[in-house]
Amino acid sequence: MKSIIIFTTILISIHGFAQLPNVRFKDGLKIYLSDDSTKYLKGTGLAQIWFRYNDNNPGSTIYGTPKKETFDVGLRRVRYQLMAQVNKKTFLYTQFGINSINSLSSRKSPLFFHDVTAEYNVYKNFITIGGGLNGWNGTSRYSSSGVSNILCLDLPVIEETTNDVTDQFVRKLGVYAKGKIKRFDYRVAAANPFPVQNALTTIATLPAAGINTAYYSTKAPELQYQGYFMWQFLDKETNQLPYMTGSYLGKKRVFNIGSGFTYQKNAMWYRNEIGDTISKPLQQFAVDVFFDYYLNKEKQNAITAYAAFLNYDFGPNYIRNAGAMNTANGTNSSSSFNGTGNSAPLIGTGQVIYAQAAYLLKKDLLGKEGTLQPYVSGSYANYQKLNDPVLIYDIGLNWIMSGQNSKLSLDYQSRPIFNTDSNGKVHETKSARRGQIVLQYQIAF
Q1: CB within 8 A of 249, min separation 6: which ones?
Q2: N or C: which end of the chain has fewer CB within 10 A?
Q3: Ramachandran region, residue 21 (left: φ > 0; alpha: ψ -120 to 50; beta: rest)
Q4: What would the CATH number be for the domain defined by 38-440?
């Protein structure tokens, strides 16, 4: 991988300097390959560094040592993109990097490809077809989130339902079509999901006993179909890349309504009351609305808001606990249903309402030091497996020092703790909520 990066960098450098003074760096790390600027190579980079305090879930341990709290530093994301407009119709896109590295991660975690896609513009903006390892997902807006322009501290992971279960950080190998017809924007995709057997972490599979609880099937996966469709009432958003913007920081006026789906035959299975194994499709549907509106073009103060209704069907009583860059790696006898560290019941069969909102104060509020953007976000989920709803919320502040290129975010998150009673029912323990505080620095070019 290092050889590939070094070789690519050398090629770009040689080509760029060989063309001087006719071709110059402009618009960032972008090299134009033709006089009319229709052909180009472009590179970007990003790092998101977390400084975190977490009040661990009950019974959490690190290699057997009980830990009530954790202070850690981690690399939430390190990404590099290299893209090329080969000619007027052909576009190549690659992204590689690492995710979620903290002191409990495997050492010397290698860079890996997130995306490698090639696409061909068939007719104007109406239809483009492509394929490869890609993130052209359906269901909802933030099933494909842009990591460099997230509104809140982190992505709405609740909308990334198969993250690292049957995909590679929401990417799959497959084909897609996308396009714009006036104000109508669409994407559809078909992909080969990865088998759960080769997931990086162990995925729970159908146990020898137990009924009416769904798990991912270990049979060869069927094709997965996805789509997302939106109507853009105001400014139009680009669809060159699959990843949707969280905040335009007062540069646009956007109002979109969208809807999407995901379907995979026989993705799940469970045992019924008489012990038969029943295969079940994975089915998801969502509607959402995105609003990002500057109030004054010169001041660039802006309101950003997003809301989604998500309907997830993984089969009876499916539930998955998860926690970003988990702060512990084990539990003892006093553990909760949540599991270790900062995990919570995140994805399951049921319905979810997710929302986020922010207000961007005027440009240069702090002079040369930028401006501020307070935000809130939250998810309210009613899952079949749980007797109580799951409410997770965040309150935070972005310090926008140089747009999305230099940004400091301070975030407090509160999550519920669930426990199983003597009858096997799972309830929230109201007095046991846990929280975490994260300071993130994002630097990008």
Answers
A1: 149, 300, 302, 360, 373, 400, 403, 404
A2: N
A3: alpha
A4: 2.40.160.10
Q: How many residues does the chain have?
A: 445
Residue 238: count of CB within 10 angstroms of its CB: 8
pTM to 2 decimal places? 0.92
Q: And the tokens for 150? A: 């997230």
- Under 8 Å between Cβ of 277 and 270: yes
Q: Are 378 and 353 a contacting pair, CB within 8 Å?
A: no
More confident residue, 24 or 377: 377
Ramachandran quadrant class, 28 (left: phi over 0; alpha: psi -120 to 50; beta: rest): left
Sequence spans of domains, the chain = 1-37, 38-440
Any idea what the Cα angle at residue 286 is, between residues 396 and 345, rounded to 5°? 55
CA distance 67 to 47: 28
In eight-state DSSP terms, residue 369 is: G
CA separation for the pair 287, 75 (Å, rounded): 32
